[in-house]
Amino acid sequence: MPAPRFIASDNTSGICPEALDYLLQANACDDLAYGDDAWTQRAVEGLRQLFDCDCEVFFVFNGTAANSLALAAMGQSYHSVICHELAHIETDECGAPEFFSNGAKLLTASGANGKLTPEGIERLMARRDDIHFPRPKVVSVTQATEVGTVYSREELLALRSVADKYELRLHMDGARFANACAALDASPAELTWQAGVDVLCFSGTKNGLAMGEVVIFFNRELAEDFGYRCKQAGQLASKMRFIAAPWLGLLETGAWRRNAEHANAMARYLAAGLDGLPGAELLFPPQANSVFVRFPPPLLAYLRELGWTFYTFIGASGVRFVCAWNTTPELLDSLLADIRLALDAGLSETST
Ligand SMILES: *Cc1c(COP(=O)(O)O)cnc(C)c1O
Question: What superkingdom does the record give (predicted)?
Fold first, then answer.
């Protein structure tokens, strides 16, 4: 079996040098626990500067916790959360949003390119408004989406106006928020509170950390007692500085943006190489750092034999490739070469 080659996810990558450098600095001397340390204070201030906003900031270990606890804080157990049918909170969090909110229901809508639309929300709102059905309270969007597209500022503002109409709060799953900022050449403020986002879950892991996400409350009232919620859920890191310091490394060096720009550029490079190959069909516009492509099934098996790693959760023959801060053009060249060779050798003729 050849050595695995990693292009399956942005969390197969290692820690980026800037984050590692700050991690080592934070390890040079002891400090206070549970977020009372100097690193955490600096990282919170750094995030407030980045977002140009006096927001409330909390560090947690992973994205499932960030989303679930944020959603739990945004509504009551008898409320519901509107999201896209492909949303990570719906498909990949093992019911954690429902669990941590003590029973809030997720209501899903379809929408092209992995995106919620004002019409989709309107349809759900029109379906029920009686006491027997959990009342919608939150709209959750994923930026960039699960299929590698991005919501423009205008699209976010349109969702915000429907949300206003029905007094819904706006949550953003920002597992790839940095990639969206880079893709849209927009500032973090423009894509969040200036577009009416109440709470953002901003991922450091997929951007180049070992672990660590921040939950950012632009609507500060929603943050009341959130620290207790994190602690109860096992998400209060006692050595919080080892999450905060690498975050500060991303912020102070600008690596958060460079890493995202690089990953996006690599995805564009891969998509350009695939575009026009007979037998390869791009499934979504590659706007962020992932590329979805349909291949003939025999090609999938062949690529796996060669050691390539990838997910196929969009349809049976839809492949997802994800680029990270450390993806190289050389890796993509060898992937493209393997694909071209296989297609030339006729692997697509058995295409279904
Ligand atoms: C990766 C990811 C998360 C977070 O996942 P964890 O494994 O819990 O850290 C959340 N949302 C989306 C869209 C993701 O891709």
Answer: Bacteria
Distance in angstroms (rounded) separating the CA atoms of residues 13 and 323: 9
Closest protein CA for atom 2 of ligand 1:
175
Over residues 135-181, the pLDDT tens digits come to: 999 999 999 999 999 999 999 999 999 999 999 999 999 999 999 99
Q: Ligand 1: does its nearest atom lie under 6 Å from the Cβ of 235?
A: no
Cα–Cα distance between 111 and 135 in angstroms, integer? 21
Cβ neighbour number for residue 276 with a 10 Å cutoff = 8
Find the 175 Cα to ligand 1 centroid distance in Å. 6
5-12+256-344 CATH pick, 3.40.50.300, 3.40.309.10, 3.90.1150.10, 3.50.50.60? 3.90.1150.10
Mean pLDDT along residues 221-250: 98
pLDDT of 254-288, one tens digit each? 999 999 999 999 999 999 999 989 889 999 999 99
Which contiguous run of DSSP H or E holds residue 216? strand 213-217
CATH 3.90.850.10 at 17-255, yes or no: no
- Ligand 1 centroid, distance to 152 Cα (angstroms): 21
